[in-house]
Amino acid sequence: MNNQTARLIELLQLEKKEKRTNNAKVISVASGKGGTGKTFFASNFAYSLSKEGKKILLIDFDFNLSNLNIVLNQKSENALSEFFEQKKSIEEIIQLYSQNLHLIYGDSGNEFFPKLSKEIIDYFFVSLNKITSQYDFIVIDSAAGANELTLRQLINSDFLILITTPEPTAIMDAYVLTKLLISENFSIQKFVVVNKCTSKDEGENSFQNLSAACKHFLNDEPTKLGTISFDILVHQSIVNQELLIENSSESKAANEIIDISKKFIEFAQVANNNQSKISR
Ligand SMILES: Nc1ncnc2c1ncn2[C@@H]1O[C@H](COP(=O)(O)OP(=O)(O)O)[C@@H](O)[C@H]1O
Ligand SMILES: [Mg+2]
Which residues belong to any copy of the AAA domain (predicted)? Predict the structure, then answer.
């Protein structure tokens, strides 16, 4: 990154601080473990928020293993790599799914995908700031794991939605991701969704286990956003390349995601009110 870009980041970051309360909030959907349902959740959650009248930008940050275009059955016309290579502006890589739901797709198996650094991730978020006034929420689907790029993405976000499943391995990985974020000395509002639950009790117990470990060892408790049932219609919706909420809106998992979206809007409103009070 040259000096001019570094200066631009500095200036835009100053601007970001001033405008923050009116801008879209950035929500990262992440998990330690792979296959917990991040892409399924992020896409259906973003769609559900858009149906609640919110203007949403959904971004695929699973660099070079992008899945969102498959799930949404859309041809990706532009990809993030073109922004990272400075060939296109952020506005130029946005695609429409519907009036209220816009997308930035990732790449898939691009052998020339540029090597990313923490500074380039920061640059992406600073550039994103130019368009945040057009949206209510920016939802980011993440890669699995806790590498330094994912941590940098989370540090640049306003909210983290941790997706875990009831399996102890997934809970452990969600705990580790939380621990790494805290060790970076960064406090972000954390929510938990327990996906693929075989019963409400299983979801509740899983959340309690994760929450107790976070409280005991990290002195930091996440907020429960909800549980999502294991539902064969989820599998079916992915095979059919349809959004569950759009095409099987009566299914149990779809209704649970709609409830989670409504609950999230309330939490975000409270957080926004508190922030406005502080900045006044
Ligand atoms: N609630 C659910 N019920 C049944 N299957 C699910 C559920 N959530 C996700 N899946 C399945 O889990 C797999 C992984 O989901 P995906 O969203 O790709 O995970 P990730 O993005 O975290 O790697 C998919 O094949 C999907 O069908
Ligand atoms: Mg995924």
Answer: 24-174
Which atom, in ligand 1's list, is nearest to the CA of 197?
1
Give me ligand 1 centre to Cα 37, in Å: 4
CA of 27 to the centre of ligand 1 (A): 19
Q: Which among 40, 150, 242 is the best mutation to test ligand 1's pocket, defined by most ligand atoms within 8 Å of the CB?
A: 40
CA angle 100-153-245, nearest 5°?
35
Q: What is the pLDDT of residue 86?
A: 92
DSSP state of 135: -
pLDDT score of 19 = 47
Give domain 3-272's CATH number out of 3.40.50.300, 3.40.50.2300, 3.40.50.10610, 3.90.550.10: 3.40.50.300
Atom from ligand 1 closest to the CA of residue 253: 1
pLDDT in tens, 232-249: 999 999 999 999 999 999
Distance (Å) from CA 36 to ligand 1 centroid: 6
Task: Give the binding-site residues of ligand 1, using a 6 Å CB cut-off.
Answer: 31, 34-40, 144, 195-196, 228, 230-231, 234-235, 238, 253
Pick from 191, 194, 207: nearest CA to 265: 191
Domain range summary for the chain, segments of one domain joined by +: 3-272
List the Cα angle 59/244/190 in 5-degree steps: 50
- Distance (angstroms) between ligand 1 centre and the Cα of 48 equals 17
